[in-house]
Amino acid sequence: MKIMVAVKRVVDYAVKIRVKPDKSGVETQNVKMSMNPFCEIALEEALRIKEAGLAKEVVAVSMGLANCVDTLRTSLAMGADRGIHVEAARELIPLTVAKILKKLVEVENPGLLILGKQAIDDDCNQTGQMIAGLLGWPQGTFASKVVLDKEKQVVTVDREVDGGLETLCLDLPAVITTDLRLNQPRYATLPNIMKAKSKPIKKYTPEELNVEIKSDLEVVQVTEPPKRKAGVILSSVDELIDKLRNEAHVI
Amino acid sequence: MASRLLLKTLSKRHRISSTPFPFLSKSSGSRSASTLVLAEHEGGSIKAQSLSAVVAASSIGENNSVSMLLAGSGSSLLKAAESAATCHPSLSQVLVADSDKFEYPLAEPWSKLVQLVQQQGGYSHVIATSGSFGKNILPRAAALLDISPVTDVVEIIGSHQFVRPIYAGNALCTVRYTGASPCMLTVRSTSFPVPPVSGDLKSDRAPISQVDLSTLDEDSIGKSRYIKLLSEDTERPDLGSAHIVVTGGRALKSAENFKLIEKLAEKLGAAVGATRAAVDAGFVPNELQVGQTGKIVAPELYLAFGVSGAIQHLAGMKDSKVIVAVNKDADAPIFQVADYGLVGDLFEVIPDLLEKLPEKKMST
């Protein structure tokens, strides 16, 4: 079986972002970029399944600007066997990403598709569900545990839902999106980073895959959220209780 | 203005006499809309979070007729439908999909159901609350309808213009939906609070009708099976809708110590929250995590003990009305958003608070 993992290049999670003065978006020039943390977890899970002998190959896919190749190289250094880069001139919305992924699935025929549950830049939490819908595959979103049964061709997924943990059993092929607690992603070692340079990355354009890039969403503006007014540092519990009772009126 | 609205009301009520006219909202939109709300039910009643999707729907525009879609099977579904029929004044119809296929809220049958009901009803908007239910189902249904949904809407500006947070709430993005109908949204429940006196708001009962499932496309249904749900039973108020939330971070050091937080929460009639560090360390179960990837809360009072205030945690609580932070480290970022800060050891502060706080009558 082949596992396909979608990875996204985003502004590093620890960066304090800045909104552009013209309100057109968030500053991404000269900002540290990394692989989306949920995508790292998705890749780690695919690698663990392969290492357990349940999959033969892990293919990492990324789409967007030319520099997405850096993110794919990171995936290869972590252990993915090869990469696919769909080069597009601008940021793609989840529906387009899902359509491109569907075409790639038709080419590559993976038995399992693993994605992060959300990208930490657009915070959409949509792509995995959309690709599952387009393919007619079952979905196991917000996964915190994945157990693959190769013989029965099913995968059991523990999902982090509002009220606790839900367990589902999905027929393969399936789509899984990862939550933070699924695993602890590995670091790429230097020898593996060197090795990754010789691993293949195949290039496509959306046109080659017959996917039209259009968007039914238009960004009107991006603004900073309202600032909270400065607070005060108190000196004792008594003062705190007094403030909460007589100033804030919340207790 | 008022008389014009009244006239409209009367004329519409006259035209479609079987449908009680939806309550007129205060909103800006003027085009008439018809909204489908995807709702969750449990034990014969509508989940509180689903009601915020109805509140959001009622702010989309005047003349918005709001239908609620419920799915499930048997008597608990019927009971839920009865309670839905009077749950909100803007609701004009309750649609019920009764089938074993909907016994559990699985995305595969639900998304096909939404597609079917949309084809039957031609709605202008489809809305769910952005909990794990809405986030799981709505994007899949949207893909089937070839539509880009808008996640986690915090403000509805017009019938097709919305505000949503991006980058863990560090920027607000205003988007306009320009595609075909329906416009699909998940809304953040804390931004569309349900008025507390929602008991007998609605005097007239919205009609309940069954969805004709004879043409339900069953491809992909049955490819997923529900096994079980593990949930922590707790007497405390629900984290998402509590008036007071008490949160503990890594500094609690152990699950045993975390009981201090629980004790304080009990005293305040509050819900308990946690940071990712506290959950990962196993102090509390994951459904208590507050943050970008956990629950988003906006209570009246948020008390953070031993929480540093990472970007990802702030994303989940910085819309709280009053924030109190107790931390040993005076430079902790949490103090930048706190209204009241106390630099000190939480192992001294909490017992002190427990002793000095008055007994609280439970307000929930």
From TrEMBL, chain A:
Cellular component GO terms held in the UniProt record: mitochondrial matrix; mitochondrion
Pfam family, one: ETF
Ranges for domain Electron transfer flavoprotein alpha/beta-subunit N-terminal: 23-213
Tagged with keyword Electron transport: yes
Binding partners and assembly: Heterodimer of an alpha and a beta subunit.
Family: Belongs to the ETF beta-subunit/FixA family.
Protein name: Electron transfer flavoprotein subunit beta
From TrEMBL, chain B:
Sample GO molecular function, one term: flavin adenine dinucleotide binding
Subcellular location field: Mitochondrion matrix
Record note on cofactor: Binds 1 FAD per dimer.
Coiled coil regions in record: none
Cofactor names: FAD
UniProt keyword Electron transport, yes or no: yes
Gene3D superfamilies: HUPs, TPP-binding domain
Domain of life: Eukaryota
Role description: The electron transfer flavoprotein serves as a specific electron acceptor for several dehydrogenases, including five acyl-CoA dehydrogenases, glutaryl-CoA and sarcosine dehydrogenase. It transfers the electrons to the main mitochondrial respiratory chain via ETF-ubiquinone oxidoreductase (ETF dehydrogenase).
Subunit organization: Heterodimer of an alpha and a beta subunit.
Binding sites annotated in the UniProt record for FAD: 250, 275-276, 289-293, 306-313, 327
Gene Ontology cellular component terms for the protein in this record: mitochondrial matrix
PROSITE patterns assigned to the protein according to its UniProt record, in alphabetical order: ETF_ALPHA
The name this protein goes by in its record: Electron transfer flavoprotein subunit alpha
Lineage: Eukaryota, Viridiplantae, Streptophyta, Embryophyta, Tracheophyta
